[in-house]
Amino acid sequence: METWRWHELVVRFSTELSGHLETILVDRPGRRPVFFGEPSGVNDLHHAEPAVMGGPLVAGAPGGAPEEQTMSNSIPIPLTVEAEALSFGERSSSLLSLFDSLPPGESFVFTSRDSPEWLLATLRSERRGQFDWTPLDAGHRQFRVEIARRGADRGSLRRVSDALSSDHDRLARLEVSAFVARAAGDAETARNWYEAFSFGLRRHIAMEEQLLFPLFEKRAGLLPGAGPTEVMRGEHREIERLLVEILRTIGDPAKLPDQARAEFHDILEEHHQKEEGMLYPALDEVLTSDEGDTLVSKIQEFPG
After folding, report:
1. Would you say residue 235 has pLDDT above 90?
2. Which of 19, 60, 145, 203 gets the highest tally of CB atoms within 10 A of its CB?
3. pLDDT tens digit string along 88-99?
4. What domain range is 169 assigned to?
5. Which residues contact 221 (CB under 8 A, 6 or more apart)?
6. How many domains does the chain have?
7. Angle at the Cα of 294 from the Cα atoms of 288 and 298, rounded to 5 degrees
8. Is residue 289 part of a domain?
9. In this structure, is residue 148 part of a structural domain?
10. What is the phi-psi region of residue 32: left when phi exceeds 0, alpha when psi lies from -120 to 50, beta otherwise?
11. Which is it for strands 79-82 and 107-112: parallel, antiparallel or unpaired?
């Protein structure tokens, strides 16, 4: 396991967003929460090179964001493909061709008024092991899902630790993007990115509590309400509380969410160490390769 993984992710993604962003590390006993200072010049951030990431920086752009870039053209976001713009008979072949054109690590967003379950089934059949599938919207008005290409061989089986650690990375990018937008004075974009982050993290939490924790408890012989998973459930409630508090203030330039964010990073850093250092590897160990791959498929299907 990487030491201080959440801390390292946030520092790395903030650095990649802009070479002008000042990252301040504030020591706390046992933890190192991260704050983002103002850029050395707001206009400098606006001129940051989008290519610094080598591809789309933020996966899962918030609804209503521009199709190509946002935050004063400094953060590329994935192409959005609308189902209604594709001929019905060529949807599968067109989307597979688009997927195949992506370098590993890049993605596109697919939107549809109808459930995209057919597309998930197609990818599982034709590109098994090569994709990540992340719902971005619960289907209130339309379905939105991000489809990312992995650097893996076709037909490879997925591991729980790989799938969920990748989602941690995706969420860290969203959180960093929100605070960089706020530092640049773009409160509306900051709130949009943080709403996307909040939705993704809430989905991640619900998926763990409904899919992973019960399975871990069963295989480990733990009673409900006891053991490490119960500690993690308590941390989830605190994380959700802080999400609400930060979301309430991030879009208001007159309010400072820094204290709540520091507390949030404290909890999340320790929480991710439990998950990536204990829970996920334990599930990889006790599940067969086919069982692990099946669980990842259920994780992909989870709506949030």
Report:
1. yes
2. 60
3. 889 999 999 999
4. 160-301
5. none
6. 1
7. 140
8. yes
9. no
10. beta
11. parallel
